[in-house]
UniProtKB/TrEMBL annotation:
Regions that span the bilayer: none
InterPro entries in the record: RAVE2/Rogdi (IPR028241)
UniProt record similarity statement: Belongs to the rogdi family.
Domain of life of the organism encoding this protein: Eukaryota
Entry GO CC: RAVE complex
Protein name: Protein rogdi
Length: 213
């Protein structure tokens, strides 16, 4: 009977030592690996993050809807549309064509990109704020830290995959709309946003009955 008790006690001590090793060695190793991955994500991000300074290649996109309903040629650098030539038609009593552009110092900001970058930086800060010699006290503490990190990454992901819907007033009064030359009529608005891997261009026309896109 005594031998059984001693064996169980030794097993408990062994498990406790293994648990402490996981807390104070393995958790730090995993956090270091995660930090390396996130730093690489930051390096590839189209903004200057974590001290990574550099010029970001300007990309050019053309979006169109046949037959001649919409055509938009866009130059994109990081989170900024630096130039755009925009042509589209709106259904009124008859089709009416509009042409506007983004040029010069008046740029269109894709705020989703900066928001996602902010979430990525906060996730990195959660890891960097943990001293390499810090001794974790419990599994609950580790899970809480991981939840904070994963929460930041999830919010950053959702920012790019599920764009926040904006009210028409917010769209029409946005600073981005003021970058258009010439300005559009008060009942017409446009929007650029990212959805997953795509850059989307949308046109909104408000009538007295309903808004159409």
């Amino acid at each position: 009977m005594q031998a059984t008790v001693d064996t169980e006690k030794e097993e408990a001590i062994s498990l406790q030592r293994e648990f402490e090793w996981v807390l104070n060695k393995e958790v730090h190793a995993v956090l270091n690996q995660l930090h390396t991955i996130l730093v690489e994500c930051a390096r590839r991000f189209p903004l200057n993050l974590c001290g990574n300074e550099g010029s970001h290649k300007e990309e050019r996109y053309m979006m169109s809807i046949a037959p001649d309903q919409l055509k938009c040629v866009v130059s994109l650098a990081g989170d900024t549309i630096t130039q755009a030539d925009i042509n589209f038609k709106v259904q009124r009593q008859q089709n009416q064509s509009y042409r506007t552009s983004i040029q010069g110092d008046s740029h269109w900001k894709l705020h989703q990109v900066q928001d996602a970058a902010n979430h990525l930086q906060i996730a990195l800060m959660h890891i960097e704020n943990i001293d390499k010699d810090y001794a974790f006290n419990s599994s609950e503490e580790v899970l809480h830290i991981l939840a904070d990190i994963l929460g930041c990454l999830q919010r950053g992901r959702n920012t790019l995959i599920v764009p926040r819907k904006k009210a028409m007033d917010e769209l029409m009064n946005s600073r981005n709309m003021k970058s258009l030359k010439p300005n559009l009529p008060e009942d017409v608005a446009i929007s650029f946003y990212i959805q997953s891997h795509k850059l989307v261009f949308a046109v909104y026309h408000v009538t007295s009955v309903q808004g159409t896109m």
